[in-house]
Specification:
Layout: H1 3-14, H2 20-27, H3 31-43, E1 63-71, H4 76-84, E2 89-94, E3 101-107, H5 110-121, E4 126-134
């Protein structure tokens, strides 16, 4: 990935519904360049999918949590790739200390929450995790 790829991803994070023409204009490149870059990022699985962001009012009944994940050995890259493919994980960060990754999780109900926890914990390379529910803004 180069600077243009990173800028394209940043634009898509800000507005995943932007047209190729609009992205090209924002990035200062041709529409064909954007299409080729996007195709390559999808083909190489750098981009695993697209999602919807909701206004906070629509999120009021959602269950949100922070999951700290310890990765065994040198499997961080593969674990990150699998985690990025889970639509319930809205953000993923590398960190220092006892844990290697922090995932922001958002689901509709406790059943989904339990399923996501089980899914993450069953990923090969995940050694241990600790999860905290987010209750209310401070």
């Amino acid at each position: 990935m180069d600077d243009l790829d990173r800028r394209l991803i940043a634009e898509l994070r800000a507005d995943g519904r932007a047209s190729l023409s609009e992205l090209a204009k924002r990035l200062g490149v041709s529409r064909g360049t954007v299409q080729n870059r996007l195709d390559r990022l999808i083909e190489s699985e750098v981009i695993l999918g697209f999602t919807v962001r909701l206004k906070s009012v629509a999120d009021d009944d959602r269950i949100r949590a922070i999951m700290m994940i310890e990765v065994a050995g040198k499997s961080t890259r593969r674990v990150v790739q699998v985690l990025r493919g889970l639509p319930e994980i809205h953000a993923l960060y590398s960190t220092n200390g006892a844990y290697d990754l922090i995932a922001e999780i958002e689901v509709a109900n406790l059943g989904e929450f339990d399923r996501v926890l089980s899914t993450v914990r069953s990923i090969e390379g995940v050694a241990r995790s600790e999860t905290s529910l987010l209750l209310a803004p401070a």
